[in-house]
Amino acid sequence: MNIAHSPHAHAPVSIGKVMATVLLALTPATLFGFWLYGWPAVNLWAVSLIAAIVGEAFVLRLQNRKVRTVIMDGSGILTAWLLALSLPPYAPWWIAVLGSLFAVIIGKQVFGGLGQNVFNPAMAARVMLLISFPLEMTTWVAPAQAPGLLESLRITFLSQPIDGMASASLLGHVKTEFTRGIGLDQALTGYYAPMDMLWGSRAGSLGETAAVLLLIGGLFLIARRIITWHAPFAMLLGVAVPALLFNAIDANHYAGPMVHVLSGGLMLGAFFIITDPVTSPNTALGQFIFGLSCGLLTWIIRTWGGYPEGVAFAVLLMNAVTPIIDQYVKPRIYGRDRKGVALPAKKGT
Amino acid sequence: MKLFDLRGGVHPEGRKDLSVGRHIRVLPLPEKLFVPLQQHIGAPAVPVVNIGDHVLKGQLIATAQGAVSSSIHAPTSGTIVALGDHVAPHPSGLPVPTITLESDGADKWIATQTVDDPFALTPEDIAARVGAAGIVGLGGATFPAALKLNLSRNSGVLTLIINGGECEPYLTCDDRIMRERAAEIIEGIRLIALAVAAQEVLVGIEDNKPEAIAAMQAAAQGSVVKVVTMPSMYPMGSEKQIIQVLTGKEIPAGGRPADIGVLVHNVATAFAVQQAIRYGRPLLSRIVTVSGGAIKTPCNVETLVGTPVRELIAFADGYAQAATRLVLGGPMMGQEFTDTNVPVVKGTSGVLALTAAEVGQAEASPCIRCATCVRACPVGLLPLEMAAHIRVSDLSGAVDLGLKDCIACGSCSYVCPAHIPLVHYFNYAKGDLAAQERSKLKQEATKKLADARNERMARIERERAEAAAKRKAAKEARERAAKEAAEKAASETV
Lengths: 349, 494
Ligand code: SF4
Ligand code: SF4
Prior knowledge:
The structure holds two protein chains of two kinds. By secondary structure, chain A is mostly helical. Helix content of chain A is 60%, strand content 1%. Chain A has a single domain, classed as Ammonium transporter fold (Orthogonal Bundle), CATH 1.10.3430. Chain A has a two-stranded antiparallel sheet with strand order 1-2. In chain A, α1 (15-37) packs parallel to α4, α4 runs parallel beside α6 and α6 runs antiparallel to α17 (311-328). The longest helix of chain A is centred in the first third of the chain and has 24 residues, at 39-62. By secondary structure, chain B is of the alpha/beta class. Chain B has a domain at 16-315: Rossmann fold, CATH 3.40.50.11540. The longest helix of chain B is centred in the last third of the chain and has 72 residues, at 422-493. The model of chain B has no long low-confidence stretch (mean pLDDT 91). The interface between A and B is large, with 49 and 70 residues.
């Protein structure tokens, strides 16, 4: 006889619900991206999702695994969604397809599926694209010139660049200006408008620019107890603290904390990427260390590295370190000291 | 009073409102009672009656044997009709040795001895009477109460904690008994305190039971007993956790509360102690919560030990809808049962009939390493890592991660979004571990036996050889003597 085991009750949660909540939290920033960059952004997003679903279903079929249950857990969709948000909005369709397939197949299923992957699939795909297709991955457009539907189809599917729309992201611009020997004060003129940065009206990835909306989404996830504050706030700290220090030393050479925190993929990274349960540590302290390191690395790469943006690289590097953090950072067990030795028996108060 | 922090824990939906509003009612006398010989931790009791014997209510029918055991008394008057196996609330689902008693309907007590001033008794006397009354921990642990009193008296108790937490969802039997019998409980608590010479007495009650807190506070007025309100959280009523919250101390790993000068008893146990000491009544009945979404009229019933649970379900007007799962105890740590002939035993706190929606069962999916289980664990374990080791049969890896410290509270399983039966893994692994240790002990015992046998054989061999050598020496001596004598005789003749 098969006796059911306790507990005979369960919290009203499931992986599907967790993923759905995260998608919900991403929606405002995504819609803002659509509004900002118009139809090309919508196309790109849709293509990413479809490619991920079809690609994952195909691989699951090959393995004779249940297609429906795995697709319905929503993790593949979330991965593709995050990847789409990190792409340049006018990127051609095949960038989205390649990236999505890479993310769900190489990034996840090859490792054994959900929960087994070492690296964040969306970030792995982003880095792969960045290295393989540097041009397509760094062609930014300035917002507020949203093209019509027909034009957008040409942009996404025929890769027809639109003259006069190309622009540079803030970090990219700063980096280029540096190589030309131009200081920050000049480089930022006309480029850095704090309010635009906050709301996201700037050149950048599809869904990474709306700092405030991403922050709201992240706070929503914290309130719903899907994520905790440790990793995200540690990451913001990890970027802001060195930025503040170096900016105080040489303001003409090092951007200040606000520029750093509001630009690039930091907000998306802090609240939605490094909080990926699979590839981050298990304990609160571990997550704090992980987040802080991700932030520091991001700042270092942005400041001294070859690429203007460092979030994806920093995350992948720290993903590799996660097992080590988990090995060393463990909670103290009841009745034992930190080393695991039983507490002494004592009667005194 | 200052409370101390607790790690982890979960907040399952209470569902206590189903049954909490109704007064405790007494279940009508069942026709037949099925009294298992083992209703406690330790060795089963040994029957002292035979088939056909007529017994009175409260008469000893099975006596404790060995160091850890408890006596069992006839729940009502009647005739012993069977001594044999019957279904029981046992995890294995297998029948266990049971005394079957057919009620004669008279419910006639044996002569009981009332004590007018129980506080004049000596601590030893109190413990002895508690033992004779067959009282075990009624919170669910069912450890023989007298034993705990004696152990604690010998090691010294600073703090006596009385557990009125009742953190399991659905269960309201402790809540009701505190509301309705507070004076008796407080007297029982004072008797326990006397028995162990406790310096401080705390009653911990969760803040979701304001009426019980008020009743207990009123009854405790002017005594040493202090009623403390604790936050509602699961597993607040677990021994380790209630000690931590009230005293800030932790039981050392592998140790007992006595190691830190604490003794914990449940409120219902305190009531049983009072009844046993003041009125000489052994433990024959307990309050059982009958509840769950599938029960028509959830309620609390004072039930004789040995009553088949189907009578309780019938008393609660039967099912309102189909029950997906029947559970003895609370939903978090209780046990499923399928045969409603299982009897209520001393440790049965609840009989639940749950609907599919309440159980919320779903197929397990892969672990997403979300660490929700880590945050929920009140012990500070890493359930996902332990489960990963157990899945590949690496028991020692799981032990290194603290498997033996797991209190099987089920908080991790309750919150896991992947619906992984974590606590089931842990219980299973602990069972395996216990089996391994038993077989190791057995091997050692066998080896000892074999060694002893070899030793014996060697000794016999040695003795045989020695005897042979002796015989040979004696023979040689005789021969030598004979020879010498012959030589002497020869020389004399010369
Ligand atoms: S709660 Fe479940 S899914 Fe999450 S880490 Fe623990 S075992 Fe894995
Ligand atoms: S069952 Fe064990 S591992 Fe799970 S939460 Fe309770 S103590 Fe922790």
